[in-house]
Amino acid sequence: MSTIKSTVLEIGEMAYFEDYPILILFNKTAPDGIREISVIHEFQTEPNEEMLKKGSKILMGGTAYTILDIGYVANKTLYELGHLSMYFKLEEGAELLPGSALLSPNKVPQLKAGDVITFIK
Fold this sequence. Notes:
mainly beta
């Protein structure tokens, strides 16, 4: 089992969408317009292009989330840009976007600066 850790640096002022169960991760290269809607993080462990797979876990906010589905470029964007759109629920019939992952349980974590996100494969 391999783990990759990342530390939350800042939470954008509009990172939590009231009616939409999603959190967007980005590394510190994110431009201003993206920063305000994102959780900005920095990898503490060297990332790789195979961090996400169905059934693997992401630990954050005291909860272990299981990856139910991943978009076809999610590993690439997470590796290159620290970017991942994490959905905690999809509307019926909705399609998962290419740089996204669907997680369970259906509970958006309340993260703060200094929190650690752990990707377990």
